[in-house]
Design brief:
The structure is a homodimer of 218-residue chains. By secondary structure, chain A is an alpha/beta fold. Chain A has helices at 2-26, 42-53, 70-76, 95-102, 146-149, 151-156, 175-185, 202-217, and strands at residues 30-36, 59-65, 82-86, 112-116, 133-139, 157-163, 190-193. Chain A has a seven-stranded parallel sheet with strand order 3-2-4-1-5-6-7, with helices on both faces. Chains A and B meet through helix 1 and helix 5 of A and helix 1 and helix 5 of B.
Chain lengths: 218, 218
């Protein structure tokens, strides 16, 4: 009975996600669902890459958070259009929330829409919001055992950002192990090693996004 | 309709949690529900404090994880009785899972039961498992904005461990801000600054647990 309810909710979510996906496709918008643990560095990464990307394309951001608008305020300081979704305690964004938020954006003027999900390495992976692909941020300080412990989110994501790579010398994180586990879970996954402190990997990640935007435009 | 289902699930959970609590009380066991983000350092902290606590009292551990037994294997190496719960993708432990796991332990020989929850700063806070108190681990590398962004888990927890304090010099974490926000959310919250690398705060936390065990015994 509980399973049935859950299936209905997910079925309804998939329907709205498909509508979002069709809308983004029609508007030639690349949509990225950015996920990761609390404190993995999602918003800091966004701040860094948005300033680079905004020179070349039009970006908008949808921010998910339980109660605050702290992350949206950080994005807004860069004069990027941003909509804050507060889930009021909910542990993930769903397609209906993103649909409602997207209605407040001028989609005709956007090439890239980044949806920053609620900080959570479990639940967001189960909810399609209509994105072109999911990206997961894993900070070095979280430990190299996380891909095997939270496999779904890495299986669902086209790209993993191994973030805070500048802290590698101060941890026992084994990069080779993490890369091997990621490849086992998801052989086609793209991996970037990034740092918002020393800038490592940010240009490479931005260039990869720009390539994906070109593909969407065709 | 969806809300109603959720209420029923939580109502049923609270009933089983109350049964667990009564059982632990009768057996004079202190039960701690240990929560925190993926990679905040919960298992490493457990490894460190168990070796100290096991000299003085009998400890058992219930480990929550989505799919693996990696954390339980780490605890087992210390010859501590440990039961692994796999939630098969579920984002938190509930009271029924803990009840079933506790049935496999010899509760007559235990003074302290630590339940390590699934790595998640959102969902576990909503589910009472029958513990005496909740403890939340927040690693310095997650950022000082987390108490205000995830207030429920800090409101529900009797104690916060500001972990990986050895990494403080390499981050922009503001300790004073974090302490102030924690006090605003939960004025009575107890705070320890801990590190598994240099051992900071571990004796203090262990002594505090031993005091709580004495209270339970009375």
């Amino acid at each position: 009975m509980q399973v049935q309810v859950m299936k209905n909710i997910l079925g309804e979510n998939d329907k709205i996600a498909a509508e979002n996906r069709r809308l983004f496709h029609d508007k030639k918008i690349l949509a990225i669902n950015l996920m990761g643990s609390p404190g993995s560095g999602k918003t800091s990464l966004l701040e860094k890459i948005l300033s680079k990307l905004a020179e070349k394309i039009n970006v908008a951001v949808i921010e998910g958070d339980l109660f605050t608008a702290k992350d949206a305020e950080r994005i807004e300081r860069q004069n990027i259009p941003v909509i804050q979704i507060n889930t009021a305690g909910g542990c993930h964004l769903d397609a209906a929330m993103v649909k409602r938020a997207a209605e407040s954006l001028n989609l005709d003027e956007i090439n890239l829409l980044i949806v920053e999900n609620v900080g959570n390495l479990v639940c967001p992976a189960e909810f399609d919001v209509g994105e072109n692909f999911k990206a997961v941020v894993l900070s070095i300080t979280e430990g190299d055992d996380k891909p095997l412990k939270y496999p779904l989110i890495f299986k669902e994501s086209a790209v993993t950002l191994l973030n805070k790579i500048d802290l590698l010398p101060y941890t026992n994180f084994n990069l080779a192990n993490a890369r091997e586990d990621l490849s086992t879970i998801h052989p086609a996954i793209k991996i970037f090693e990034t740092s918002c402190i020393n800038g490592a990997g940010l240009d490479e990640f931005c260039n990869w996004i720009l390539e994906k935007i070109d593909e969407v435009k065709l």
